[in-house]
Amino acid sequence: MNLKRLFTAAFHHQCVITSFKSTSNNNNRNNMFMARAALVNSSKSVVVAAAAATTTSSTSIGRSFLSTSTRSNSNNNRIMTSVSRGGATSGHASSSALFSSASSNVSPADRAAEEARAAAKLFGFSEFESWLTTGGDDRSLILENSGANKYHIKPQAIDSSHIFRGSCTGNPPTDRGYEAAKKLFEERIEGKTGQELDMVLRDIFATQRYRLSVVLNLPRGSEIILCPSGSDAEYIPVAIAKTLHPEATIRNGVTQLNEIGAGTAPAAVGEYFSTHAPFIGKLEDGVKMLDGFDGVEGCIVPARTKEGDVVDASLKMKEFTDECLNNGHYPIVHGVFGGKTGVRDTVMPPSLEGAKKSLGVVDACQGRFSLEEMNSWMEQDSLVLFTTSKFYQAPPFCGAVIVPPTIAEQLFQSSNPPIDMLTDNGLGAYLTDKELPHCLKSWTTYLRDEGKNNVGLALRWEAGLVAMEKLASVSDDKRTAVVDEWAGIVTEMVKNESPQLDPWCIERSIISIRMSNNDGGWLNMKEARDLYRWMSMDVAAAVPDATEEEKEALSTVAYIGQPVSVSESHAIVRIALGVESLLSYISDKDTTLKEDKCTVKKLAAISKHFSTLKESGL
After folding, report:
1. DSSP string, 22-62
2. In what order do the strands lie in the sheet with 163-165?
3. 3-state helix/strand/coil string of 184-233
4. Residue ranges in the chain modelled with pLDDT below 50
5. Closest residue by Cα to residue 226 from 242, 241, 213
6. pLDDT at 105
7. φ, ψ for residue 585, nearest 5 deg
8. What does the pLDDT look like over 29-41, one tens digit per residue?
9. Which of 201, 294, 421, 426 is the most exposed place for a label (fewest CB within 10 A)?
């Protein structure tokens, strides 16, 4: 089947066009962390054995990127360099810290990592666990009022008595991922500084890119960019478009607003989406744009109507593409392959004429796709945004941009790097040359900096990769059959809890559920946030009138997917199968389904006793 066909799906809503342009020189900001790795070609085949082994072994991949001299951090009066949380930089660094806060020359990148680690250590997390929270944005930070991040997640393996069905939002480390990342930290990273740390991470990232290419069975010549999350991955297609077409006016079309990451829409036009950036830390108040992204305009299509009906955005993206081409603009065209509720756009857009006329982008950040589907996207020259911090249950967060061979070759041949974007206040806030593959050699001079080392990203990718490699022995057909069976059984569990619960939407391994408000309607977004928080707590004591069965469910900690506002009348929460629960279902179906039943029972009990829980003040 020719997947480069024109978009044919119907769409009847208006597209919201928002233009973001700089009003003064040097005031543009871009939040972009992009790491890309080349699929090893025949000349690099010597690393196959090393990449397949543990990352404790050294590999020469990526050494060609290393320079004998490094670029110093540019002067930047727009970076926040003050240490947050009062004395968070004293009394918390262990002897194995990779830098010392006592130095008067602490770089913004080191300070950002130190602040994240200090926040974690206030709650007793180990040196390794503290490093897991570094190198991201505000979503990964441990909060002072809870000892967990904003998703109620800690940088520790989940307690064996707890239930986890929240892989569509964010994940605590699995036992498997925790041990793999800890091994990497202790054997290769801990105690390293300066050029030594730079070289170690260079090898680690190169090996991780290779391992990812193998487990995804990518075609020869594909390349991979590693990045802190799926949100900042959105900066990368814009930078690639600018590299390939430096004089073009770029417009970026994004679909499924409200069911993609909240940071996607701002990042697509070069805006910061968080209060923090990996190599800066906390941003100054009022900072909005990254360097070099001025003039990029966005076309944003919502995921649903106000009534909650799915919007088919494919035809609208076709119209957007035609309009851009008629006006001499260069369109970046998105398709979402499974958003927060798992809904997939009708058509995944190709890059027209091998990216000469447009750049197709498939948002597959949930990771709920088959190898056959991935291959089809490579064949149609689409960039693919991917993370292992959803279905594959790596800690929050770690992303990648996968580049098909046709576009990778064009990037390799290009001598037009987007220099204005490759600054400390642009992509350099998220990215170094260590995360780049060889096809982006034109960028490396501007992003090379041995003082910027994203240890947290390497650890999180390690946790995700071991999960991918464990599941690799299970065929796509078997995975699909298991997921369909699980979804059918759990959907019936939800239906059995009527009228408290309703299985509102089922898409592959994500079941979206709305909850009764006990007054003829359903919980709204604000109320669903309370329910989501209570699911991660033992709340049995707050409901003395609950039955014994309800109290047992209410006492169980169960992590689920965060609420999504899907219509004006209600919000939903999600039960999502992740890689570990899928493997558990294959090996021990009864135990896995017992956990699912308990999760559903707790949702129903919280819905039934919502007023009592609200009055309790929890």
Report:
1. -SSTT--B------EEEPP-GGGGGGHHHHHS-TTS---TT
2. 163-165, 558-565, 571-576, 510-515, 501-507
3. HHHHHHCCCCHHHHHHHHHHHHHHHHHHHHHHCCCCCCCEEEEECCCCHH
4. 1-103
5. 213
6. 76
7. -60, -40
8. 333 323 323 322 3
9. 294
